[in-house]
Design goal:
By secondary structure, the chain is α/β, with parallel strands linked by helices. The protein is built from eight helices and five strands, in the order αββααβαβαααβα. The chain has a five-stranded mixed beta sheet. It is globular and about 45 Å long. One of its GO terms (molecular function) is guanosine deaminase activity.
């Protein structure tokens, strides 16, 4: 891992709390955060697809856009991407294209699918699973990691029951 694990766990726990607040304000449970070895931490990115109508405004991409602007360069070489939910294929590809070194996630793709966010088909469709960044991605468990997903379901339970 490119940064101290204890620090990454604390930052992931903070990202999870941002995610809970985002869910409670009407958003979905995905937050991205970038961390560099020199101590720099990006502003969190939240998923803004619904709010903006931009299908690429995933939390990780929003965080990457902010980081590129803040750092004044497109390469984020050596940076770690923290994500409350494992990135989708698009987000992994964007992270790889910006030279991100490591991806850590609080909730993996299979667990996200169990809570109503199933984007697993995208990985095989464009062979994203073959990217080295995906192969080295790491689950970084934090105590409240699943809370944004359970809170989302609590707030939107009727949306899921009417689909059945």
């Amino acid at each position: 891992m490119t940064a101290d694990t204890t620090r990454l766990e604390a930052l992931m726990a903070d990202a999870v709390e941002v995610s809970v607040r985002h869910v409670e304000s009407g958003g979905v449970p995905f937050v991205g955060l970038l961390v560099a070895n020199d101590g720099w931490v990006s502003d969190p990115g939240v998923n803004l697809v619904r709010e903006t109508g931009d299908p690429t405004a995933h939390a990780e991409i929003v965080a990457i856009r902010k980081a590129v602007q803040a750092r004044g360069r497109s390469s984020l070489e050596g940076v770690t991407l923290l994500a409350t939910g494992e990135p989708c294929a698009l987000c992994y590809r964007v992270a790889a294209s910006h030279d991100i070194a490591v991806v850590c996630f609080a909730v993996d793709r299979d667990t996200a699918a169990e809570w109503g966010f199933d984007y697993r088909a995208s990985y095989g469709a464009d062979e994203t699973d073959r990217l080295p960044l995906v192969a080295t991605a790491q689950h970084l468990a934090v105590e409240r990691g699943l809370v944004p997903f359970t809170r989302y379901l609590d707030l939107h339970r009727s949306d899921f029951t009417t689909r059945s």
